[in-house]
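example protein:
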Amino acid sequence: MENSPLATFVVKMVGFDEMRYQCDRTQEFFRANFDADDFITDFNPIVTEIVVNSILKLFDSRRATIYRYYNITSELKSKSQTNFPVRPFQSNS
């Protein structure tokens, strides 16, 4: 987790001792010693809310970008193919 902006944020919010405790819990979680709900509910709810909201904003941004790209490609597909430039790697020889 070195150089991780998320890890830096969490350490600043909860401190090193809590972060070490949660890292140990993470290992136990991946060993399937408890389920995701138990893992999440034991974490600082303020940090959890901030991280979840940030992820949702990121997903919304990515979704908007994908929709924009999809609209562009849909418009291009509806136009005649003669408008597209010929690329050197597309030669028919």
